[in-house]
């Protein structure tokens, strides 16, 4: 493999997990590399295989022999892994026998090619294929195949178009005839290579890496959770000092390794997995002098690439929301001189198909090529790093409590409300993917301390005094509404009213009286502080009405307040009356013909919605948002998707009772049209009716 950058492949680690029937929700057998013989593994008759990263092949016999099963990223339940008997009695007998896997192989090909020949021995007319081909024939005529050569990739070939029927798997090699297929000639109608998915992370908020001094995880090793500016730095602690890096295991997060100290030189992206030596991370050589974790929000990805420096408007630009394997195909071109990463973490590559030099881009502005460490302005392919849905308990809050400052001592992990923390006195904490409230008394009482996602090395960082003893913990639930709060001068929501939708650092400084007698939380979740600059006692409020603020809080004033920061949330909307899910139905190429309706559960992207800043977006088209169709908005108006224009009819508020209100027409909510016509399942807006359950929706967070 040439390492001049022009044909450099950037290898990626693989990961496959095998679960037995009784352990689907527990830890399974994790596989990171080829296994020559795993026939001794004790498995249940039915197994669940989850491919987190890479493409894999399961073989019935050791040494990669016998019948095989190709696997791409996702999960697959195998009730009778090698079963071939059709009789019911034999199937029942076999189902009681444990599954046996002889060997497992990881395949990772970024560039694929297969040649089909019309004559044996590689003679005759040759036709080359490089990607998925749903129909090989031209004008309905399919060319016969008598021999095959697979240059790169593992291919599935079909005798039916559209990848229909039982495929035959071909690995790299020459096939001078079709004896392996028990044929002299064949008519191959469709084919596709096994494909690895995009870059992904399972534990983005828990960066951890083990570095070994020698290859194959031998020699002295250290465990790192933060950046190393210079490897072997004499000023570094003895226990974290290494003179060289021979191999690595990335246990959590996404890391970037650099050829030179100070995060300079060639960049190597490290996903979670095991790297046996420098070839596993795609190094040009053994040199690796610095590394750092990438901290960011991996749930949303958006960037704008510019052909000119400093985001110049004279040249061309392109909005990027997902994977592009060859920017040349978009019409934008290959010259990029500045980039604005609006959200997410991206990897840009010098060459197509994610090859050549790679550059890691976190959220921020990159006004020139030097900002991302490049020596030229060529970028040919890009892909975001996303949270892995298969391997991650996404949306589940995880709290790590430590008995000593700086995350030392004993550790307790909490994932649900805890009425009494009695294991040890908490001195530091890490909040992963969510937020929580900790209390200085049991049963969620006493003073509150609101902790959002992040790390808190001591009690002071958590907003507590050094003497505070934390006694209980409550997980903060998701709130799907725009922040809005009203403060009243008198009890019962009487007197002067002050309404806010953004943070207020000092209420009195802005000319308002800090004396407050009643509060209405109209949307969002709010952290209320007794004094200015977020000081004093604090309290978290969700949408509710508090007619007597003093009775609830114990004080008659509010010095400062802010809406609680929440990441965007992916969810499905189930109608409480019908049990069906809101879906986007139609062709994205013509938004005017697309309609929003309820359907049975399909677990597809057209049923997954994203809520952020008042917009409801469909996951299959995140540059579009839910809107009311037409200019005349009345009860019965239908819904569709349109590009974001900051129009009032594109904003929505989801109330605690499950009703979804229009900002433009506050008395209209989402409803199902009903009736007996063709459009009875269409979602419309209707006047609020407390007796209609079709107006109530349950948001199921993904």
Automatic annotation (TrEMBL):
SUPFAM superfamilies: gamma-Crystallin-like, Ricin B-like lectins. The keyword Repeat applies. This is Absent in melanoma 1 protein. Keywords: Repeat. The keyword Cell membrane does not apply. Gene3D superfamilies: 2.80.10.50, Crystallins. Belongs to the beta/gamma-crystallin family. It comes from Colius striatus. Residues 54-108, 153-195, 207-252, 253-295, 344-386, 434-477, 483-523, 524-565 form the Beta/gamma crystallin 'Greek key' domain. InterPro entries: Beta/Gamma-Crystallin, Beta/gamma_crystallin, G_crystallin-like, Ricin_B-like_lectins, Ricin_B_lectin.
């Amino acid at each position: 493999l040439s390492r001049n950058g022009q044909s450099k492949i950037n290898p990626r680690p693989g990961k496959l997990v095998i679960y037995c029937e009784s352990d689907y929700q527990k830890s399974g057998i994790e596989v990171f590399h080829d296994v020559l013989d795993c026939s001794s593994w004790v498995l249940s008759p039915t197994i669940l295989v989850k491919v987190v990263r890479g493409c894999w092949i399961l073989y019935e016999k050791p040494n990669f022999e016998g019948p095989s099963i190709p696997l791409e990223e996702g999960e697959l339940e195998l009730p009778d892994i090698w079963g071939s008997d059709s009789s019911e009695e034999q199937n029942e007998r076999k189902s009681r026998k444990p599954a046996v896997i002889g060997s497992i192989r990881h395949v990772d090909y970024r560039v694929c090619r297969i040649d089909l020949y019309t004559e044996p021995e590689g003679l005759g007319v040759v036709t080359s294929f490089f990607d998925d081909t749903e129909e090989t024939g031209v004008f309905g005529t399919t060319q016969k195949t008598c021999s095959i050569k697979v240059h790169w990739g593992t291919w599935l070939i079909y005798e039916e178009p559209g990848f229909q029927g039982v495929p035959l798997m071909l690995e790299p090699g020459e096939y001078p005839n079709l004896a392996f297929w028990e044929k002299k000639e064949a008519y191959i109608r469709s084919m596709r290579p096994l494909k690895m998915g995009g870059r992904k992370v399972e534990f983005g908020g828990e960066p951890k890496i083990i570095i070994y001094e020698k290859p194959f995880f031998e020699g002295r090793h250290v465990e790192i959770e933060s950046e190393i500016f210079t490897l072997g730095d004499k000023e570094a602690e003895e226990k974290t000092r290494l003179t060289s890096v021979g191999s690595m295991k990335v246990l959590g997060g996404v890391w970037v390794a650099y050829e030179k100290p100070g995060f300079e030189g060639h960049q190597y992206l490290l996903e979670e997995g095991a790297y046996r030596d420098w070839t596993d991370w795609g190094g040009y050589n053994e040199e690796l002098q610095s590394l750092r974790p990438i901290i960011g929000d991996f749930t949303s990805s958006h960037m704008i690439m510019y052909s000119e420096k400093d985001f110049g408007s004279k040249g061309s630009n392109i909005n990027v929301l997902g994977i592009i394997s060859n920017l040349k195909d978009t019409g934008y071109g290959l010259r990029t001189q500045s980039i604005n990463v609006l959200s997410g973490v991206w990897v840009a590559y010098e060459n197509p198909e994610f090859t050549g030099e790679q550059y890691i881009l976190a959220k921020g502005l990159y006004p020139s090529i030097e900002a991302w460490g490049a020596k030229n302005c060529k970028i040919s392919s890009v892909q975001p790093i996303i949270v892995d849905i298969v391997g991650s308990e996404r949306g589940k809050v995880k709290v790590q409590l430590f008995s000593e400052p700086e995350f030392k001592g004993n550790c307790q992990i909490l994932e649900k409300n805890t009425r009494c923390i009695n294991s040890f006195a908490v001195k530091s904490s890490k909040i992963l993917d969510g937020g929580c409230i900790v209390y200085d008394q049991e049963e969620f009482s006493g003073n509150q301390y609101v902790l959002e996602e992040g790390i808190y090395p001591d009690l002071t960082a958590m907003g507590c005094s050094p003497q505070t003893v934390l006694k209980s913990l409550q997980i903060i639930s998701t709130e799907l509404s725009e922040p809005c709060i009203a403060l009243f001068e008198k009890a019962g929501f009487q007197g002067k009213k002050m309404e806010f939708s953004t943070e207020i650092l000092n209420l009195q400084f802005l000319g308002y009286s800090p004396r407050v007698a009643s509060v209405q939380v109209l949307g969002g979740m709010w952290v209320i502080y007794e004094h200015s600059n977020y000081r004093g006692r604090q309290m978290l409020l969700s949408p509710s009405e508090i007619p007597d603020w003093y009775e609830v809080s114990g004080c008659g004033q509010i010095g400062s307040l802010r809406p609680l920061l929440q990441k965007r949330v992916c969810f499905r909307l189930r109608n409480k009356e019908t049990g069906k899910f809101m879906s986007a139905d139609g062709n994205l190429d013509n938004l005017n013909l697309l309609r929003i309706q309820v359907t049975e559960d399909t677990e597809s992207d057209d049923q997954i919605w994203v809520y952020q800043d008042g917009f409801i977006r469909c996951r299959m088209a995140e540059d579009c948002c839910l809107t009311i169709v037409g200019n005349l908005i009345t009860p019965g108006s239908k819904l569709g998707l349109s590009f974001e224009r900051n129009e009032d009819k594109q904003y929505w508020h989801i109330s605690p009772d499950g009703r979804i209100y229009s900002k433009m027409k506050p008395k209209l909510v989402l409803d199902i049209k009903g009736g007996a016509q063709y459009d009875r399942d269409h979602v419309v807006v209707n006047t609020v009716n407390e007796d209609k359950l079709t107006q109530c929706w349950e948001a199921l967070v993904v």
